[in-house]
C-alpha cells in the first residue's frame, strides 16, 4: 500500500516536535512511504536537514516542503508547495507573519491566507462550531487547491470527530486526505515529547493535564496500521497530492545583486578594472610574472563559474570600512586568492605563503567561494547597517544559528520537567567535570546524589541524553549575510532577531552550504578594535601614524621576535594561550612564516598526526630532512618535510597521487567530517595507488594517508594561519614598542581574548608600567594613558567598576568641575542614584576627597546633608574612622572591580603566615628538572583540549607571575573538589623542564580558598 505523510512537524517546531528532520525522512523511507512533507509551524527551518539526509543516504522517498499555521486559535491549515512559485509564496507568508511579531512568535492574518494563489491548502478542522465559518471562508478563496485533512489520534472522541469532518467535506464538497499530525518518528519518543511540552509550558510533566499527549499515535505509523485507520480513498488522496508536488529544494538558485556594476560594463570587466588598480597598490615596483599568470588564471575561473558579483560585493563592503576608518582583515580561504589581495580584501601577501587557489574555488566543486572578513568588534554594527541600507530589508538578512541543547541546559530543563529540585540541578551542573572526557556525566551525577535505580533517575539520564543536540531556538549567526538580487523572502523566510534593527533567515550556515547559496561573512574581532585604539593612542601621544600594512612591512624586527620567543605574549593575538606559550620557546619564531607555522602547529591536527616532534627535531638539526621526489619537496620544503597545513595535504594528493584540484578538495571535505561518516577511507585506495603509479614507496604512501587521518577534522589551513599571523605580529610589535598604550587599548576593548583585566594589569605591572586607581576626579569612562614622572602610566577608567552604568558615568563626567570635586556631597548633588554612588564608593573612587571606602559610605548615608537647613561643610561633621585591613581592601577591590592594585592575594596569605614553604614562579628557574616543588596561586584559567586525553592545563597566578600546571585525569578525578572549585590552589608536584619551557605536574591539590573566603576571583575556563 502506498502512503504520503502530509502533516509532520520536526523538532524545528520548537518544543513540539520530538524528532530531527533527518530521523523523520529516514524512518518514513524505511516504512515505505511514497513521500513525506516537513510542515513545521510557520517555518521551513528544518526542511534542509531532511533534504540533505535524503540526498546523502540516496533515499527513494520524495520530500515535500510545507508549513502549518494557526489563525486566531480557530483555523489550522497546512500549506504545501507544488512548484517553485508556491514555495516563494509560502516563504512570503511565513516572513509576513514572523516580521509582525517579536522573535520566536508569529501573527498570521486573514490577508496572508487570502493572498495565497499557488500553494495547496489542507484544512484541519478543530471540531468546534467555528468550523462552519472557516469552511465557507476557505472554499471562497481556495476551492481548486483545498483539501480537508483527516487525522486519527485514537482519542475518546475519535468517531465523533470523523463524523464531523465527513459532514464538513460533504457540505463544502471537499476531498478528504489522510494526515498523521506526526510529532516524532518512533513511538519511544513520547516521553521526550511530554518533556518538551512541559518545558514549553513551564510546569512539571505531572502538571500538564490535557496538554499532555495521551498516547503515541502522533508517530510515523506502518502502512498496515494506516490502512486500518483510514479509508482507502483518503490514503490515495494523500498520494495524489504528493504526486502533484514536484518542487525540490535543489531548484533554488542564488541570484547576485547587480547594482555594483556600472552601466555598459560587464561584471568581469569591472572586476578586472578593480584588480588592475589593486595591482598598482599592492605591487608598486612591478608585478612578478608568476603572480600575473596566477591572477589571470583566477579571473578566468571566476568568470567561468559566474562569481564576479560575489567578489564585487565583498570589495564594496571592505571599501566602505576603509573609508570609515574601520580596521578589517580578510581571512580564511580568501588568503589563497591573489585577486582578493589585489582587491584589498586580505592583507596576506601571496609571496609569503604557498597560494592554493583550488582551496578557494574549483571547477569540480562548483560551489560558491567562502570569504570571511573580520571587522573591529565594536564597529562591526556600522558595516552591518551599511549592508542593510544598501540592499534594503527585503534583500538581505543574517543567517541563523541553531542554538541546541547542551549538557548544562539539558540537565536544567529536563530536571525541572521531571520535578527535580532546582537547587539539586544547579549542584549537579556546578560539580560535573566536563573537561574529563573519560568520565561520563551520568556516573558523576550518581556520585553527586542521583539514585540510578529509581524510575525518575533512569528517566532523567535517558531524557538528557535524548534532548542533547535538539534545537532550542534560532539565533543570529555571528555575521553571515545573505544578499539577493530580488526579494530575499522568496528564497527563504525572514524573521526578526532579538536585537533591534536585525533580521535573520530561517537557515543556518550548514543549510546554506547544502543548497549552494551565497553567504557573505561579516565577522567581529576584538583584536582589531584593540589595534585601532592603540593606533589612535600612538598618534595622540607620539604623533606617529601607524597601520597594519606599515607594521607588516617591518616583519623582521629581531627585538619583537625575541619577546615572542620568550613567550612574553600575554594579550597578543593567537599566540597567547597556555599551549602556544609552551611551544614558543621551543619553536623560536624568527620571521613571519615561522609565526604562520607557530599558529598552525599548536592545533589538534598536527598534534594528532604526530607532526610536531619531527618538525622540531628537523628544525633543531637533530633529524635529517629527506624528500622522495622534487614534487614532494616543492610542497613540504617550507615545513621541513612535515605536512602541517590542509593545503599541503591537498597539494600532495595532486602532485604525488594525481588528484585533480576538485578531487583534492573533496579529500579536504572528507577530512573535515571523516569521524562522522567515514568518507575519508574511500580515498585511501586512490591515494596509495596513485602514489605507487608515480614511483613512491607503499610505506611512504601509507605514512601520508595516516597523517591525513591524524589531521582528522582538525586540519588547519595555511590561509587562516597566514591571516592570523599578520595580526599576531602587529599586536606583538605594539606591545614591545608601546606597552602602556597596548595594555590600555586591550583593557578598553574587553571582553576579548584569554585574559581578564586583572591578569592584563598584573602583566603590565611586571613590565614596569604603573597602574593608577579609579578616581572620581581623574578617571574617564575608558582607561587612559597618562604621563607619570616622565613615564607612561595607565589610569583605570570608570568602566572597570562592576555594574556601573555608562549613563551614570556620562552624567558624572559632564558635570565634573575643571578643578575636580571637593566633597562626596558635591557628587551627591549631581543626582546620581544611590546604587551608583555606592558602586563608586566600593571601588574607592572617592579616595582623594573622602578617605577610604568605609568613610565614603558613611558620608553617602548621611541624608541630613541633602537638606539646606542642616547642610554643613563635610569637615564639620563628626568623623567616622575605620582602618580596613589588607584583606578587607583586597576583598573589596575584587568585589567592586575584579582586580586589586594593592597587595596580591598570595602576598597577603604569605605575610599572614597562612602558607607553608612554597616556590614562587620566578624561583622555578632555579629548581632542577624532576625536582619536587610546592606552588601556590590564584586559579586564572583551565584548558582541556580535545586532544589532551583528559589532561587539564591550569594557570596559577602568584605575586611574581603565571605558573603552568599539568593535571592528569587520574589526579582531577581523585581530588575533584579542589580541582573543580578552588579559587586559590596549592599544588604539590614535580617540576618538568624542556628547554625554556617549565611546568609543574600536579600531585596533591589543596584548596586554600577559605583562607580568603570573601575574595572574588574569576577563572577563564576553556574546554
From TrEMBL:
SUPFAM superfamilies to which the protein is assigned, alphabetical: PHP domain-like (SSF89550)
Domain Polymerase/histidinol phosphatase N-terminal, chain residue ranges per copy:
4-73
Q: List the record's Gene Ontology CC terms alphabetically.
A: cytoplasm
What EC number(s) does its UniProt record assign? 2.7.7.7
Q: Which reaction does it catalyse?
A: DNA(n) + a 2'-deoxyribonucleoside 5'-triphosphate = DNA(n+1) + diphosphate
What would you give as a GO molecular function for this chain, any one?
Answer: nucleic acid binding
Q: One Pfam family of this protein, by short name? A: tRNA_anti-codon
Task: Provide this UniProt record's keywords sorted from A to Z.
Answer: Cytoplasm, DNA damage, DNA repair, DNA replication, DNA-directed DNA polymerase, Nucleotidyltransferase, Transferase
- Grouped into one coarse class, the protein's main location is cytoplasm
GO term, biological process aspect, one: DNA replication
Q: What class of enzyme is it?
A: transferase
Q: Where in the cell is it found?
A: Cytoplasm
Q: What does this protein do?
A: DNA polymerase involved in damage-induced mutagenesis and translesion synthesis (TLS). It is not the major replicative DNA polymerase.
Cited PANTHER family: DNA POLYMERASE III SUBUNIT ALPHA, ERROR-PRONE DNA POLYMERASE
For this chain, the family text in UniProt reads: Belongs to the DNA polymerase type-C family. DnaE2 subfamily.
Alphabetical list of HAMAP family matching this protein: DNApol_error_prone
Protein's name in the database: Error-prone DNA polymerase
Gene source species: Thalassotalea marina
